[in-house]
Each structure stands twice: as structure tokens, then as C-alpha cells.
Specification:
By secondary structure, this protein is α/β, with parallel strands linked by helices. It is built from 20 helices and 14 strands. The mean pLDDT is 94. The protein binds pyridoxal-5'-phosphate (PLP).
Length: 430
């Protein structure tokens, strides 16, 4: 498969350079040249396939033979190695729990796959690949854990000193091996600026191979298709034939993956783009005008995005046709107060513990379902990652999963940097 840039259809790239560069040279995002339909035979076998097997079959047209099939089979089995259960919450609403991976967040899925794809491309190189990631909390932990122990790749996680929660910090500062955490005396924006400066430093790039791991990378968002197929497979087994799916959205990588799955043939009645008050996309769906804005802090902070990076991919999928876009995607926005009320009432009525992101997806779905349709919402983070918000609303302590307890026991090891570029660069080159 070849990939083109959203800024220029005639800029074509192969898989390897699209993955290693992340962004096209014209700053566009890479899109697959074709979206293949899955065979009749695949749909017949789908209900009996494991998550890893679904991953292999669905992603093979994009990643093979650039990655040899036999290797790709092992890769998908290793990347998708944790459960993603579909559970009933009420009569007509089920939840797809995407938070049973190493850092209890759905970003684990994309990060684990991306790490293994990059490792394929380092074979035969005499240099290591250096992944730079600036984080305000969750991305750093998913990327660090996804790449942990992957040969030929080193990860540098930059984070603002004293500004991430203890749980988040433990998840990327205690790992060791090929992961280096750098505590920056500054803000998240300073961390991002240091990474950007490094990418533009030609002298440094002659010395080191640098790359990024955010959701503009096609090897991070495409693997997210896998759980949409898996959700459908589980629904079919329960006798549900058609579903609407609510996606709690920030940069819209998750929803983009769902839409591509649909174009490959997945029967989805309706997608719901659920947002917090950073409601750029719901507003676009209403007015047809895309107006980015500075992001506003909310209790669902992984969705605090004022200019969603993947939205350009959605417009490209529908060739900018707003009528089409509206027929596949409904928007819904939740105020902060709604997030709190939803966590409270869903626990009270159904004994189900939501995190703030999942609460937005649930509420938006409950509002938009019609008649006796069946709806699925994506739960993107474990509620134990947000104890300050959730515990007082449900009136009890949330049990910490063992994995989180293990992280908390680990010893923090970090390098320190000022927000001065030379200080950061010397850490990279030593
Ligand atoms: C990143 C994230 C989101 C938003 O996903 P996008 O693909 O950026 O839309 C939602 N919930 C959680 C918990 C996240 O970490």
C-alpha cells in the first residue's frame, strides 16, 4: 500500500517513510491510497477470530508485504494481547472497555502496535531510532510502555516537573531499559517546544534518527480499527446485528479509525462524535464551518483539544462533503456538570464505574439513541486513573488494578533538564 498527503494527493510515500516521518514533508497527514473491502469469507469467520487474528486480517492490506506476512502475524498477536470486553450496562447500551492494557488507557493499543512496526524498520539499520514525546500525562505513559524493551528504539519522554499526577508520573519514570524520562523545569508547552526545536535541528538529525509517536502517525491510528471489528463480532454473538458507536473524542484519531473500518465494510448505523466543551467538531457539523479555538481545561483532560489534528483525515475520507459527513457522524457536547452527573447516575442506576471520558461517550449515546436501537460507547480510560474526580461522585474508593499498584511501588528515575534547548540536547547526545 502507498500513502498520500492530505495536502497533496500526488505526494506519495511508502509505508516505511510514512511511519518513520509521521508527517508528510508538506505537513499534510498520510492517508491510505485505497481502502480495501474485506472479503465475504472474512465476515463469516469474524465471530470466531481472536483480537490478534482480526488485527492481522484487517491491517494486512496496509502493512504487508512491506512487513512480511509471517512477521506481521506475530507482531499483531503481540501488540493486541489484552482483553477488550464488550459488556452490557443497560438494556440497550453496552460498553467496549479499551482500558485493560499496560497503562489502563486506550492509547496502549496504538502505541504497542506503532512500537512494533517501527522496530521492523530498524532491522538492518546500524543506528537506533529515537522517539521524542512531550506529555502532559497520558500519552507519555502509553508510548513509553508500548516501546518498553523494543530493540533498536530509544524513547525520551519529556514532562513538566511537578505538573503531572503521581499515578501518571510513575507510569513512565519507573521503567528503565530503553525509556528515559526527562523532567523539564517548565510547562507542557516548553516540553513541546524542546521537541519541535530538536526536529528542526539539522545538525542533530545528521547525528541521530528522530521520530515522534503521536496520533498523526498512521501506524498509531490505523490499528485502532481492530476493536471496532471486535466489538461488532461480540455484538453479533449476542444477537445484535447493527450498532451505533459513541466515541469520546479529542484529536479524533479514534473516530477516524472507526470510519475507515466502516468503509472497509463494518456495519455501523451511526457514529457519535462525543466531546467536552471543546466542541469544535459538533459546531462544525452544525454550521459547516471549522473554527479552531484555544483549548479549555475540563475533567476529561485527554479530550481538551481546540484544533483536532486528525479532523483533516475525516474531511478527506468524505472529500469535504458536509452532507455525507453529517449522515455518518452526529455530534454531541457535554458540559462539565453533565460529566459529573453522568458518573453519579450511571453508578447509581447500573452499578457501573465510569471515568470522565467514558461518561461523555455514555451520555452522548443515551441522548441520541432512538427507539430500541442498540448502542455501544467506548470507555477509553480506567476510572482508577481519575480517583480525585470519580471517588467523591460515587461515594466510595475505586479499587486499583494490580498493574497500577505495581507502578506505584516502582522507583522514580529521571534526568533533569532546564527549558533551555542546549541542556536538553546534551541529554540526547550523551
Ligand atoms: C487520547 C484520549 C482520548 C481522545 O482520543 P482521540 O483519538 O484523540 O480523539 C479520549 N479518552 C482518553 C482517555 C484519551 O487518553
Amino acid at each position: 500500500m502507498k500513502f498520500y498527503s492530505t495536502n497533496n494527493v500526488s505526494h506519495i510515500s511508502d509505508l516505511k517513510s510514512a511511519v518513520l516521518n509521521g508527517l508528510a514533508p508538506d505537513k499534510g497527514l498520510y492517508m491510505p491510497e485505497v481502502i480495501p473491502e474485506l472479503s465475504q469469507d472474512f465476515w463469516g469467520r469474524l465471530p470466531d477470530l481472536s483480537l490478534g487474528e482480526i488485527g492481522f486480517e484487517v491491517l494486512k492490506p496496509y502493512f504487508c508485504p512491506d512487513i512480511p506476512e509471517a512477521k506481521f502475524k506475530t507482531l499483531t498477536a503481540e501488540a493486541f494481547n489484552f482483553p477488550i470486553p464488550l459488556k452490557k450496562v443497560s438494556d440497550n447500551i453496552s460498553v467496549l472497555e479499551l482500558f485493560h492494557g499496560p497503562t489502563l488507557a486506550f492509547k496502549d493499543i496504538g502505541a504497542r502496535f506503532l512500537a512494533r512496526v517501527m522496530a521492523q524498520f530498524t532491522e538492518g539499520l546500524d543506528k537506533t531510532i529515537n522517539v521524542l514525546v512531550a506529555t502532559s500525562g497520558d500519552t507519555g505513559s502509553a508510548v513509553a510502555n508500548g516501546f518498553l524493551g523494543v530493540e533498536g528504539v530509544k524513547v525520551f519522554v519529556l514532562y513538566p516537573k511537578g505538573l503531572v499526577s503521581e499515578v501518571q508520573e510513575k507510569q513512565f519514570t519507573t521503567l528503565g531499559q530503553n525509556i528515559t524520562a526527562i523532567e523539564v523545569d517548565g510547562t507542557f508547552d516548553d516540553c513541546q517546544a524542546l521537541v519541535k526545536t530538536a526536529f528542526m535541528d539539522e545538525a542533530l538529525r545528521e547525528q541521530l534518527i528522530l521520530t515522534s509517536a503521536n496520533s498523526i502517525n498512521l501506524a498509531r491510528f490505523l490499528p485502532q480499527m481492530v476493536y471496532y471489528f471486535y466489538a461488532y463480532a461480540q455484538a453479533v454473538k449476542k444477537g445484535i446485528k447493527e450498532i451505533s458507536i459513541s466515541v469520546p473524542s479529542g484529536n479524533f484519531g479514534n473516530l477516524t479509525a472507526g470510519l475507515i473500518a466502516q468503509q472497509m465494510g463494518l456495519p455501523v448505523k451511526q457514529f457519535i462524535a462525543a466531546t467536552n466543551i471543546n466542541d469544535i467538531v459538533p459546531k462544525y457539523l452544525e454550521s459547516g464551518i471549522y473554527t479552531p479555538a484555544p483549548s479549555i481545561a475540563t475533567p476529561a483532560n485527554a479530550m481538551d483539544v481546540g484544533d483536532p489534528s486528525n479532523f483533516v483525515r475525516i474531511r478527506e475520507l468524505f472529500k469535504e462533503n458536509i452532507v455525507d459527513i453529517r449522515s455518518y457522524i452526529k455530534g454531541f457536547t457535554c458540559e462539565n456538570e453533565t460529566i459529573f452527573k453522568t458518573i453519579e447516575s450511571v453508578y447509581e442506576q447500573f452499578n457501573y464505574e465510569l471515568d470522565p471520558h467514558g461518561a461523555i461517550a455514555y451520555h452522548s449515546l443515551a441522548q441520541l439513541l432512538i427507539g430500541n436501537e442498540h448502542g455501544v460507547f467506548l470507555a477509553t480510560a480506567h476510572p482508577a486513573k481519575f480517583p480525585e474526580t470519580v471517588e467523591k461522585l460515587i461515594g466510595k474508593e475505586i479499587e486499583q488494578p494490580d498493574r497500577l499498584k505495581e507502578f506505584m511501588k516502582g522507583e522514580k528515575r529521571v534526568e533533569s533538564s532546564t527549558n533551555n534547548y542546549e541542556s536538553f540536547k546534551s541529554l540526547l547526545t550523551n
